[in-house]
Design a protein that fits this description.
Length: about 180
């Protein structure tokens, strides 16, 4: 089984945990670390009804690029959690820079713990985080804890379109998983 550090390194495509202390430095010029904030916004505006009361949880939010974009454009309430304190510090500064600090809360935390306590969100975003919460079946079960009945989970990850790359689920396997897990 992989440790939290090993999964953290992998989530940022670092090949070993020795790189972890250097990640904030290596990624200092980037704000977006995984998901496209624009794609997330498009998905949400196309499919969901959002109001100022809508509560979004952005798990492993990185430097808050997705959270801040959603708060700015939709006026919704967002909580972002990430394990790297420098990323959270960056996100807090960016929220102030864009005038959405009242809408955004950013917190340092391990999402394997947060999913046990964060509950009743309208939307839970799990963007480009990979296997931090386990395999995809385990991940969906845990994410469901944090979303309210009738709410939505948005996962940004890959699916494979040929059988050769067993590392990824196929589109059919994803759909079956969503169906099986309700
Ligand atoms: C590829 S980045 C994606 C960041 C963000 N979701 C985005 O799309 O911009 C993966 C993130 O997962 C975070 N992470 C990895 N393991 C974590 C854990 N156990 N708890 C909280 N955050 C974690 C990393 O610090 C990193 O910011």
């Amino acid at each position: 089984m992989q440790t939290v550090e090993e999964k953290l390194a992998k989530s940022l495509t670092a090949e070993s945990i020795e790189l972890i202390p250097y990640l904030p430095y290596l990624l200092q010029d980037l704000w977006e670390l995984g998901s496209s904030p624009k794609d997330m916004l498009d998905l949400i505006t196309r499919h969901l009804r959002v109001s100022k009361q809508t509560k979004v949880l952005d798990l492993a939010c990185g430097k808050g690029a997705v959270s801040i974009h959603l708060a700015r454009r939709l006026g919704c309430l967002v909580k972002g959690i990430d394990i790297i304190p420098e990323f959270i510090g960056f996100a807090i500064n960016k929220a102030q820079e864009f005038g959405v600090e009242e809408l955004c809360e950013f917190k340092v935390g391990d999402i394997t713990e947060s999913v046990k306590t964060e509950k009743d969100y309208d939307i839970v975003v799990y963007g480009a985080v990979g296997n931090v919460l386990g395999n995809w079946e385990e991940t969906i079960i845990l994410l469901k804890n944090s979303v309210k009945k009738g709410g939505y989970i948005i996962i940004d990850d890959a699916y494979r379109n040929d059988k050769s790359n067993a590392k990824y689920l196929s589109r059919e396997q994803w759909l079956k998983l969503f169906n099986d897990k309700g």
